[in-house]
Design goal:
single chain; alpha/beta; Rossmann fold; Dihydrodipicolinate Reductase, domain 2; 3 domains; nine-stranded mixed β-sheet; six-stranded parallel β-sheet; 15 strands; globular; binds nicotinamide-adenine-dinucleotide
């Protein structure tokens, strides 16, 4: 029998779920209603389902009518893809009203809301899936297999560097994510993926966290200190923005224009704010030290204005060292920035290959060995999205590596970032056990 789904939060991320239910998973799933604070975005999604898949018109409910929607539709599962700050409200209320939940990361943004989710889950006995698509990416899965095989022995320490480039990284500073109250900052909003990977790879969870982090690049004051004198608040209608390589370019007729420019009259959600404006309360350079329950220690850093995007992870073990180098985007193509590139540099920049092998293991006494992996589909996040969707909509019975993630994984993945947020304020290390009771 088909399961009935409703979805809350009809912005960019909702596409993956709506198109999956309406496309590849029609035999097991049915989308029955949409909910959001913004009617224009819901109407857009409703039209997509109707025009592209012949489904609907699916009823739409404003956020204040969430309970009415549950009463009318009686869904099996609520999919939560709204702004991070609101996740806990929908997760908890959905479970209280008898529904299971599929939620986007981060499960929530602070310890209090996390506790509320844990308590409600235990009280209601309903199920929560947290959609950690990075786990499913074939290369990240290969690392899990290698570590599980014991090739590197016991992992004593890890260095983990994640770079967000001046396109993707900058995007977190253009809209709601830039306000820590909405997103928990990048150490929660973004790093929940990275900390989840590390918990999963190490089969452990954080014990003690220490962090130093700052806003050093984005924001008006930082730009002023670098000598910038011309500012604008948003791209739309700004002449100054035309000279700023960090300004988002939203093409006419694009999906982004329809979802955001066409909808902004309802809620003043401006998708194109200047990254060099005032009022940014998140960090762009973050350094975190974590001791895990299994005694591994990790040095992690994230920065959000890198010239290329990707990550490097090195696992130091009692039998050798496993290195993992991923280039997701080798450079950022800005018309303005590219003018400065010499032809030789351009050639280098378009070479998508890493200078070093992606996955390499060096035993303590012997030659390095390179490992490969297979990408079986072209879906997002290195082919991970489709594998995740299969688990969600067809079931995760066959899951030898434990890809499927529930509320405990969701909680453990945000606790490093939540602890780091406390640590960067107090200057003290934080015991994760003091934050929530499982
Ligand atoms: N796993 C991934 O790779 C990935 C990628 C992108 C986004 N996400 C997650 O998906 C979620 C949505 O991100 P997005 O990029 O689609 O953002 P978005 O801003 O495009 O969409 C968010 C939607 O939530 C709605 N909303 C805001 N407040 C609401 C409320 N109180 N009640 C109901 N709806 C509300 C907004 O109107 C908007 O339509 C976030 O939690 C984000 O972390 C995950």
């Amino acid at each position: 029998m088909k399961k009935k789904y409703v979805l809350v939060g009809t912005g960019g991320r909702s596409s993956m779920y709506l198109e999956a239910i309406a496309g590849d998973f029609t035999e097991t799933a049915e989308i029955c209603a949409l909910c959001d604070t913004n009617q224009t975005r819901m109407d857009h999604r409703q039209k997509l389902l109707l025009d592209k898949y012949g489904i609907g018109p699916v009823p739409t409910y404003k956020a204040a009518q969430f309970e009415q929607m549950i009463a009318d539709i009686k869904p099996d599962t609520v999919i939560v893809t709204s702004m991070d700050r609101t996740h806990h409200k929908y997760i908890c209320r959905a479970m209280e009203l008898g529904c299971d939940v599929i939620t986007e990361k981060p499960m929530t943004i602070d310890a209090e809301k996390c506790q509320q989710i844990i308590d409600t889950k235990k009280r209601t006995g309903k199920n929560i899936i947290v959609t950690f698509n990075y786990r499913y990416s074939p290369r990240n899965t290969r690392i899990k297999e290698l570590l599980k095989s014991g090739i590197a022995g016991q992992i004593t320490s890890v260095t983990f560097e994640w770079l967000l480039d001046t396109s993707h990284g900058a995007d977190y500073f253009r809209r709601w994510h830039r306000n820590k109250n909405n997103s928990g900052g990048l150490l929660v909003h973004k790093s929940t993926h990275h900390f989840d990977l590390m918990n999963w790879w190490l089969d452990s969870m954080p014990k003690t966290v220490f962090c130093m982090a700052d806003l050093k690049f984005y924001g008006k004051e930082n730009a002023e200190n670098r000598g910038v004198t011309e500012f604008y608040s948003r791209v739309r209608g700004s002449e100054i923005a035309k000279k700023d390589p960090f300004a988002i370019r939203i093409p006419e007729g694009s999906l982004t224009e329809q979802l955001y420019y066409d909808a902004e009259h309802e809620d003043s959600y401006y998708r194109d704010q200047s990254v060099f404006g005032d009022g940014i309360s998140i960090e762009d350079n973050m350094n975190v030290m974590v001791r895990y329950e299994n005694n591994t220690v990790m040095n992690y850093c994230l920065y959000a204005h890198a010239p290329w995007e990707g990550y490097r992870v090195c696992f130091n073990g009692t039998k050798g060292r496993l290195e993992f180098n991923v280039v997701e985007n080798p450079f950022v193509n800005s018309d303005i920035v590219e003018d400065f590139a010499t032809p030789g540099m351009r050639e280098l920049m378009t070479d998508k290959k890493t200078m070093v092998p992606e996955i390499i293991f060096q035993p303590l006494w012997g030659k390095p060995v390179e490992f490969t992996y297979e990408v079986k589909n072209k879906s997002g996040h290195g082919g991970g999205d489709m594998l995740l969707l299969n688990h969600i909509f067809l079931g995760a019975e066959n899951d030898p590596l434990g890809h499927a993630a529930g509320y405990l994984d969701g909680a453990k993945s945000i606790l490093t970032g939540i602890a780091a947020n406390i640590s960067m304020k107090t200057g003290q290390a934080v015991n994760v056990k003091d934050l929530v009771q499982f």
